[in-house]
Amino acid sequence: MFSEVKILQIVLVQWLTLFSFTYNSHGTYILDGSAAFNENSYLVLTNTTKHSYGQAFDNTTFEMKDQSFSINFFFAIVPEHKQQGSHGMTFAFSPTRGLPGASSDQYLGLFNKTNNGKTSNHVIAIELDIHKDEEFEDIDDNHVGININGLRSVASASAGYYDDNDGSFKNLSLISGKLMRLSIVYSHPDTKLDVTLCPAEFLVPPRKPLLSLNRDLSQYVLKHMHIGFTASAGSIRALHYMVLVYTYPEAVYQPLEFGRVPTLPPYPKKPSDRLRTILTFCLTLALFAVFVASGIGFVFYLRHKKVKEVLEEWEIQCGPHRFSYKELFNATKGFKEKQLLGKGGFGQVYKGTLPGSHAEIAVKRTSHDSRQGMSEFLAEISTIGRLRHPNLVRLLGYCKHKENLYLVYDFMPNGSLDKYLNRSNTNENQERLTWEQRFKIIKDVASALLHLHQEWVQVIIHRDIKPANVLIDHDMNARLGDFGLAKLYDQGFDPQTSRVAGTFGYIAPEFLRTGRATTSTDVFAFGLVMLEVVCGRRLIERRAAENEEVLVDWILELWENENIFDAAEECIRQEQNRGEIELVLKLGVLCSHQSESIRPDMSVVMQILNGFVQLPENLFDVVRDEILKGRPETSMEILLDVNSFATLTFTNSFISHGR
Fold first, then answer.
1. Is 364 annotated as a binding residue?
2. Same structural domain, 453 and 596
3. Which domain holds residue 565?
4. 496 or 657, which is more confident?
5. List 105, 133, 141, 464, catalytic entry
6. CA 546, 14, 489: angle at the middle one, nearest 5?
7. Mean pLDDT throughout 34-39?
C-alpha cells in the first residue's frame, strides 16, 4: 500500500508542477523587469527594447539542501538577426524571491557588477549564453554553463547533445528560434549534477549529459530556495521565451512530450523605410508591365493544373465519401482568403457552397501526417464519416489532392462555443447566452460524448474536448466537431498508449503520465467545459482577483463556503436557475477531478443532467478528502457509502471504466 501511495503522490506532483508554469503557476510566479506573458500565454523574459532584462521567480520555495531533484524546462531564443543575438538566459536557484539590482547585457538579469562572484549570493544557475564575454572567460557565443554565485562558469560546453545511437556530438544553435529542452538532474548521494540539452521533440533526454559537475551543492545553498528564470539583451536584441517547466523530487529522467511542438513567431520587424517602399513598388510595377502577357498565360496554366484530377487506387477503394478537387475548388472560389473561416493546429478552414445543391459547407485543408499510414488514416476518416448523431458535426466527405487532405463538414453559421464565452472576443452588443441555452449546450455535448463512448459499434475517444471544438448551428444546438485527434478501438478493448496530444489545460493528468487516452480523459475535459459554460470565462483568468484566477480552485473555494452559486456568470444568476446551476457546477468539478477513479462515465453524467440520478449530499467532502489522493481503494468504499441511497447503476458506473 505504501508504494502505491508513493506512486500516486509522485503523479500528483508531476501533474501539478507541469500545469503550474503553463498557466502562470496559479498566479505564484513573480515577474520583474520586462518579463511578461504574451497573447499565447508564453512567458517572454525580454522585450524589443535594447538592454532589457527580466526575471520570473516562483513565490513558493523549493527544498534543495541535501536533496536530489530533476528539473526540465522548454525554452527558445528568437534573435533580432538570424546569426547574432545577445545576451542569454538562465535557470536559477535563489534564496530570495527575485534578485534585486540585477543588470542587463552580460549580467543576464542575474547579478550586477557589485555582487557578481560573492559567496554570500547563495545562487546556482545554469546559463544559456549567446554572447562571448571575455570578462567571464566564455568559451564561445553558443554555450551552456554551470555558474555558482557568479557569471564565470565552473563548467561549460558548446550547445548540443550526444546521439544515443553512435555517440556523435550534434550541434544546436541557441538562437535558432526553435523550442528546446534543458534537463537538470542532481543526485545528492553521488553529489553529481548533470545538464542535458536536446530538441523539444525528444521524449527523453540523451543518456550522455552535455555537462557534469561532481560537487556537493548543499554547501552553496540554503535549506529553502526559490526557482526562477532570468534573461537579458544588449544592443542587439532577442526575445527569450519560457514555455514550460517541470520539476521532480528525484534524480531521474522522466519522459515528457509536447504532442505538437509549438512554433514561436519570428522577431517583430521594423516598419519599412518610406523610400525603400516606394522603390520596391515601382520595381514591382515595372516587372509586372514587362511580363504581363506571359504572366496571364502562366496563371491560366496553373489554374488548369490545379483542377486536374488523378485517381489513385486507394482513393477508388475508400468509398462514396470522396469529393473531386474541382468541386471543392469551385465551392470555395479557389480557396480565397475571404472564404477563410479560421486557422488551427491542423490547417485552415474555408466556407464553401456546393454547386447545384447550394448547400453550405466547411472545408478543412490540412497536410497529411506522414507518420501515419495513408490507408489507416483514410480508414479512420471513413469510419468517422459514418457517424450520424444530431449533436455531432457531420463529416460529409474528403478529397486528397497532391500533399493536401481536404475534409468536408456541415457549415455551422453561429461559429464555435468559445466565441460566446470569451469576453475579449465577444462583441459588446452581442447578447449573452441565457441559462436555458447554456444548459441545452451542455446536454448536447454530453449526448454526443455518450454516443461516441458507449452507443456506437466502436469506442471513439475525441481527445480534444474544448469550447473551440463545440460548434453552434442555426437553432443554437451544440455539435461536437474536430476529430483530428480522435482514436478508435473496439468495445471491450483497452486503447494502446500513444503520444500525448490535445490542448493544455484540458488534458487529464493520467494521460500526461501514461500517454493512454481513455473515455475518462474525455470526461475530464468535458467537466472543465461545463465549468466554463456556467461561469462564462476561461480556465485561467489573469486579470481576475488573485483567488479567482484559476477557475476550478475558485469554484472549490466558493463551494466550501457554501456560495458555489456565485461562480455563475452574473447575467444568468437568477434564483429560479439556482438548482440546475449548482448541479452543473458540482458535476463539472466531479468530472474534472484529478483522480480518474472518481469521475463518472457519460451514461451517469446524462442521468444526472436529466434528473434521473442525484449527486451525493456530501460530495464536497469526497472531492476534497486527502484520502482520495493517496488511497483509491478507500475512496471507492467512501463513494459507495455516500451513495447508498442512489441506484446501483450510479455507484457501479464509477468503478466500471472499462474503456
1. yes
2. yes
3. 418-655
4. 496
5. 464
6. 110
7. 89
